[in-house]
């Protein structure tokens, strides 16, 4: 574990024996803060995620997030540059040093398009979707599930290469539920850790004898695809109006018509967003379909040019 040490100037920190200078605050959540820092040795910018650990359980969760990052070295999963656990003023903090992506999240990009009354071209949607699928595929291959896939948890590099981030909700892909108590435990965990408007139907009312698996990510992936097409999530409005998302997700997704996108893309979305997890495809199938549609879209673009 890397040792961290605050030194005289509050604007400078050490993580794993490397010095970083504080530049500015970037973001603030319920239990975490994100600061922009600069590496003294390499001059690179990093996002320093500081997680407040209120108890042993909180510290363990932060440790799990570190371990999840360490599991992967993949072009579509955000890497971890360093970490440390720090005691400050009687409080424990976990520091995760991550590459800084100046373009921001997929959600930021979609918001800008919406503000301009613009839209995302089909080939761009498919390019980003392909990268998200590749990252998810790597996670599923190792026997894990992301559990909180949404546009704010996808960063975009300058070339639109997506990076899956916020691995704090990740856990084993296959969860066997035996009995009502276990079902309630999973349901309560999902209510805390899986964003409501991107949460799979089977996590709202967990059956007392069932298997929860990586198909929860496929549903969330469908919600992300819908969001790229419509510039808002399929259940964002339901949630904002105070209506029941749990009820809304029991029905197959409705694609507003007329739709500017190809029938192929609409069919892909409908195939992913199926309320019954057993009827949802796996990530390999989605990746294959995406690549096929992408090659079609690129040849169409070339013909148009």
From TrEMBL:
From the UniProt annotation, give the residues forming the signal peptide: none
Its domain of life reads: Eukaryota
Q: Which residues form the Protein kinase domain?
A: 20-294
Its Enzyme Commission number? 2.7.11.1
Extract the SUPFAM superfamilies matched here: Protein kinase-like (PK-like)
Q: What molecular function terms (GO) are annotated for this protein?
A: ATP binding; protein serine/threonine kinase activity
Q: What is this protein called?
A: non-specific serine/threonine protein kinase
Organism of provenance: Megalops atlanticus (Tarpon)
């Amino acid at each position: 574990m890397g040792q961290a040490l605050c030194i005289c100037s509050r604007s400078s920190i050490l993580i794993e024996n490397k010095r970083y200078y504080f530049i500015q605050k970037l973001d603030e959540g319920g239990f975490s803060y994100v600061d922009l820092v600069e590496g003294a040795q390499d001059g690179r910018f990093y996002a320093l995620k500081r997680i407040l650990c209120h108890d042993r359980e909180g510290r363990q969760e932060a440790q799990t997030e570190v371990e999840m990052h360490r599991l992967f070295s993949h072009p579509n999963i955000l890497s971890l540059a360093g970490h440390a656990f720090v005691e400050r003023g009687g409080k424990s903090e976990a520091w995760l040093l991550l590459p800084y992506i100046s373009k921001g999240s997929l959600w930021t990009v979609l918001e800008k398009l919406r503000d301009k009354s613009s839209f995302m071209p089909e080939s761009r949607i498919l390019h980003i979707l392909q990268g998200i699928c590749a990252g998810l595929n790597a996670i599923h291959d190792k026997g894990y599930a992301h559990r909180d896939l949404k546009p704010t948890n996808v960063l975009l590099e300058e070339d639109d290469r997506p990076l899956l981030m916020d691995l704090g909700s990740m856990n084993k892909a296959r969860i066997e539920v035996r009995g009502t108590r276990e079902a309630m435990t999973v349901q309560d965990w999902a209510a805390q850790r899986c964003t409501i408007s991107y949460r799979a139907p089977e996590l709202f009312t967990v059956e007392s004898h069932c298997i929860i698996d990586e198909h929860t990510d496929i549903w969330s992936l469908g919600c992300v695809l819908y969001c790229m097409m419509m510039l808002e999530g399929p259940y964002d409005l339901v949630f904002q109006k105070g209506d029941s998302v749990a009820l809304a997700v029991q029905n197959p997704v409705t694609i507003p018509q007329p739709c500017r996108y190809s029938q192929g893309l609409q069919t892909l979305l409908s195939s992913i967003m199926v309320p019954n997890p057993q009827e949802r495809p796996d990530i390999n199938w989605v990746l294959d379909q995406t690549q096929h549609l992408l090659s079609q879209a690129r040849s169409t673009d070339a013909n148009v040019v």
